[in-house]
Write a structure and sequence with these properties.
about 80 residues; mainly alpha; 2 domains; 4 helices; about 0% strand
Length: about 80
């Protein structure tokens, strides 16, 4: 089995983006912006699994979860 040079090149490009000044800025911001939303939906709203199957239906269900989360924030 040989080395996949294309994959190595893509990994190097991704690593360069992640370690760039802009990449570090976005990575530092992620835990404060995104993770609490998922934690709230999973733990406080007791969401464990999607009820529907299929990409389109899961997208709709995710959208409904996001709408419910945003409405709860507005009501508080």
């Amino acid at each position: 089995m040989g080395i996949n040079h294309r994959l190595r090149k893509l990994k190097d490009q991704a690593n360069a983006r992640l370690t760039s000044e802009l990449g570090v800025h976005y990575r530092k911001k992620r835990p404060a912006d995104i993770e609490p939303v998922f934690a709230n939906i999973k733990h406080n709203k007791n969401f464990k699994r999607f009820m529907l199957k299929g990409l389109n239906k899961v997208e709709i269900e995710t959208g409904l979860l996001a709408i419910a989360h945003n409405l709860a924030k507005l009501a508080a």
